[in-house]
Amino acid sequence: MPKEGVSAALSPLLDRSSALAPKYYSEYALGMERVTATLDEQTLAKIRHVAGPRGVSSFLNEAARERLARLELRGLLDELDATHGAAPVAVRAEIARDARRIFRAR
Predict the structure, then answer these.
(1) Digit-coded pLDDT (tens) for 41-63
(2) Which residues contact 39 (CB under 8 A, 6 or more apart)?
(3) Among 4, 15, 70, 99, fewest CB within 10 Å belongs to which?
(4) Cα–Cα distance between 44 and 61 in angstroms, integer?
(5) 64, 47, 66: which is closest to 55 by C-alpha?
(6) Rounded to 5 degrees, what are φ and ψ at 61?
(7) Which whole-number Å values give the CA distances from 72 to 20, 77, 90, in the listed order?
(8) Tens-place pLDDT, residues 58-81
């Protein structure tokens, strides 16, 4: 039975009981794409130290998702500013102080 969003042509490949290399089947790999990224040596060394040598892809995927979420939020805030005007300087300063306190480095 084909999985949702997968073409009928691929469904035999997704059947674990088929003779086509069932031990290599990985549901995790579905919807993933291999890419090449160039990182400076220090950054990559730090990522490997934190994530382990086999956790680099997961680390980069999570970092990209977090960055995209921040960009989306920034866009929403810019939209609110355009519609309702920017918050007063005093309010922005108070928010910045609270953010530094809440999100300070641990």
Answers:
(1) 999 999 999 999 889 999 999 99
(2) 47
(3) 4
(4) 14
(5) 47
(6) -65, -45
(7) 41, 9, 25
(8) 999 999 999 999 999 999 999 999
Rg of the chain's alpha carbons, rounded to an integer?
Answer: 22
- The residue type of 23 is K
- How many angstroms separate the CA atoms of 60 and 42, rounded? 15
Please, are residues 59 and 49 in contact by the beta-carbon 8 Å criterion?
A: no
Could you give the angle at which helices 56-84 and 41-51 cross, rounded to 10 degrees? 110
Question: What distance in Å separates the CA atoms of residue 11 and residue 8, rounded to the nearest whole number?
Answer: 5
Taking CA atoms, 28 is separated from 25, 67, 77, in Å, by: 9, 22, 34
Domain edges within the chain = 33-102
**What's the rounded Cα separation, in Å, for the pair 20 and 1?**
16
